[in-house]
Each structure stands twice: as structure tokens, then as C-alpha cells.
Design a protein that fits this description.
Length: 129
């Protein structure tokens, strides 16, 4: 009996997800995406790679970007690219392996830019420690 119920539940869920995807297919992307316009978004590891791409993407969508990276040069370059595209960005050199530095930088960001609404990690991955 339990197996039959689980099977029915599975079919119902699959049907629901299929219907949801059909409906969403006809809804334009701009109505499906959450607005980040005006939000302060903190991106760690924004000095290159995934973090930089994420920072540029969020800035394009109107977020006020705060970049943290241990590599000051790369971090500044990300900010330069965002500003050149008309966005707002603030670079902070921060070593994420140092708890004290993290707390101090967070205080500075709160004071100088405002309360962070969303944080994204571009510095960590499967090979990170
Ligand atoms: N690029 C890929 O296709 C890919 C795929 C899977 C996983 N990953 C993982 O995702 C993570 C990011 O990848 P990426 O290609 O963007 O790497 P990346 O080296 O281009 O960027 C990482 C950034 O993090 C910064 N960083 C590193 N240690 C830091 C620290 N202690 N404090 C502050 N900043 C620090 C670096 O200075 C650099 O700017 C990596 O851990 C990688 O292993 C990447």
C-alpha cells in the first residue's frame, strides 16, 4: 500500500513540475527573476573568475556591488569594469582566511556602503580549503 502511495505521490509531483515548467515557459524572464536593484550585494573572491563574472552580472541588474578579495589588483579591476559599465562598486582587500580581518571589513562595509542584502562566494569551490 505504501509503495502505491509513494508511486502516486511521485507521479503527482512530476505532473506538477511539468505543468509549472510549461507555465513558466510563457512568462518573460524579467518577471521570473527576483529584483536586486538597489540591493547591496557582497561578492567574495571577486578579483577574478566566477566571482568577477557574478559581480558584473549583478551590477548589470542594478545591485550595488561590494567586492572582497585578497588580490587588491584584481579586485580593483573588477570594480573598474563595473563602473565603466555604469554600475556602482566598492572594493575591499580582505583575506577570508583571517576571521578578525573579516569582522573589521564587514564593519567598514556597513559604515561606508550600507547593510549587505545578499552575499555570494566566488572564492570557494571543491578544491578550496
Ligand atoms: N572556474 C571553474 O570552472 C570552476 C569549476 C568548479 C569549481 N571551481 C572552483 O570555484 C572557485 C572559484 O573558481 P575561479 O575559477 O573563479 O577561481 P579564481 O582563482 O579565478 O578566483 C578565485 C578568487 O578568490 C580569491 N581568493 C582566494 N583566496 C582568497 C582569500 N583567502 N581571501 C580572499 N580572496 C581569496 C582569489 O584572489 C581570486 O580572485 C575555486 O575554488 C575553483 O576551484 C571553479
Amino acid at each position: 500500500m505504501e509503495t502505491v502511495l509513494n508511486g502516486l505521490l511521485c507521479v503527482a509531483q512530476a505532473l506538477f513540475l511539468w505543468l509549472q515548467s510549461v507555465v513558466l515557459f510563457f512568462v518573460p524572464a524579467k518577471y521570473r527573476e527576483k529584483s536586486v536593484s538597489g540591493d547591496v550585494a557582497l561578492i567574495t573572491g571577486a578579483g577574478s573568475g566566477i566571482g568577477r563574472l557574478l559581480a558584473l552580472r549583478l551590477a548589470k541588474r542594478g545591485a550595488r556591488i561590494v567586492t572582497w578579495d585578497v588580490n587588491a589588483e584584481g579586485n580593483e579591476e573588477t570594480v573598474r569594469q563595473i563602473r565603466a559599465a555604469g554600475g556602482e562598486a566598492h572594493a575591499y582587500t580582505c583575506d577570508l582566511s583571517n576571521r578578525e580581518v573579516i569582522y573589521k571589513t564587514a564593519e567598514r562595509v556597513k559604515r561606508e556602503v550600507g547593510k549587505v542584502r545578499a552575499a555570494h562566494r566566488g572564492d570557494i569551490g571543491e578544491n578550496s580549503t
